[in-house]
## 1
Amino acid sequence: MSVLRTRPVRPAVLSDDAALGELDRATWSTLHSVQPRPHPPYEPFFGDRSRPEHLLVAEAEDPAGDMRIAGYIRVVAPTPLACHTHVRQIQGLAVADWARGSGVARGLLRAASALARNEGANRMTLRVLGHNAPARALYASEGFVVEGVLPGEFFLGGRYVDDVMMGRSLAL
């Protein structure tokens, strides 16, 4: 694992929009996205579905020595139902290529879990594409277990890919 100089994970702010959009486009891949590759003109990163209060960001020193956003995690309540307020769902995690393997994703996962606990949640869930072995291994190492699989749910890059549901308790 490489060592990067980092800042503590923090909530996203509106002024992060351009950097988050750039990171999202740079990390796009059928390894983790079911959405088409983005093309100009690009929509703003923040919108109705993705607001600053849904994201945590990690900042680190890039290879040029500049401190910038190295990754983000998007965590939301999966539904607006009162009976579902105890659950948070990860609906996006991205780490810049230059920051991979340095613990940025793990730090974001841990910060998201702590925030969810502070908000009263006791469960965290996510969906990950079956062929994304690195992400699945990371999630498993952080206590997530496979709770369901939708075989061949997506057709990506010329093949059918499973949709894997994972979850974990947030109890300490």
Note: The two ends are 27 Å apart (CA to CA).
## 2
Amino acid sequence: MAQVSLEKLIAGARAGFLVSFPTDTVPALAAIPEKAGLIFAAKQRSQDKPLILMAASAEDLWPYVKGSENEYKIWQKVAEKYWPGGLTLVLPASQCLPKVMNPTDPTTIGIRVPNSAIAQTILAQTGPLATTSANFSGQPPLQTMVEIAAQFPNVVTLAATESQEQTLGLGIPSTVAKWTGINWEILRQGAIKLDSSNDNQI
């Protein structure tokens, strides 16, 4: 598919197509949660590698997770401190989450709000999207829309003219922190470093 305008990309995502757009880390390959299977197929990605649910605000993501009142307070405190930004929180999933997002372990989900104006503009109009880096599984993340359009010709990508005024992402994937029930386990260290003494308390 051709590289398209912002409006056409948003319409394509809503219609269930695979889309790609810049974020604050690396460009995302994205689809509405119910169509997450398209991402696994396009990337040739193993089913045991879950996707990240990305949204324009934390409020859009809380319905997809479940926890105690105290846990919610801890999660919200961390979200307020680091979002929007390069931190993915892996939390217990609620019934709202389509199983296809995390086929081998649908009990958890990684959630994130990107610090990218263009990504937030898109997500505010599509609602939360299943996302991952734009590349074949096991290969380095692609960094430009042109590279993504060439490698994934069936993906609706944002035209370079639409995204060139946006600063490119850091090129570093997000930090991934999993909630264990009492504290955070760092699954992948990225740009953001959690404060282990404070970020597991209310």
Note: The CA atoms of residues 5 and 161 lie 8 Å apart.
## 3
Amino acid sequence: MARTRLTPEREDEMYAAVLDLLREVGYDALTMDAVAARTRSSKATLYRQWGSKPELVAKALRSNKPVSLDEIDTGSLRGDFHAMLCRADDCQMEKDSALIRGLSQAVHDNPDLREALRELLIEPELTGLDQLLRRAVDRGEVRPDSPALKYLPHMLIGAFAARQLVDDRSVDQAFLLDYVDSVVLPALGV
């Protein structure tokens, strides 16, 4: 069967509905029926466009990323990190943190979701981080053999995960900017 292409506006509307449902009910309780009802579409349309719930969720999360890391190049690693963090406001960071918390358990229980997230969200982000770090190495800001380079994704994800757990507070821009300056850059030798 031929795949009918949705308009970008309709696709964005559907992704927003998926993200809202994820925040409201979590991954396990999110159903294609609920997405179809919320978006006034058919389940058949959803499966034709996305194939599966994990793929739909991963693509909705990907659509939520307003900027690509390869669009950021300020001339310094600190500047790049700050530019990256300043692209999202505190409200968006809080929503993103809620999504991450909501998906963290689901990822362990759903291998299809884990694979879709790795392929559609994590891998592109890692590629963008690698480019950002490669430029910093090329500029001489970071040693190419710095042992911290391979742990950068862990450090950044850890900041999101630990803030709520340790401080009982949501991640915000001020926290992340200070975290980058106090933890990430010193670990990289910057």
Note: The first helix runs from residue 8 to 29.
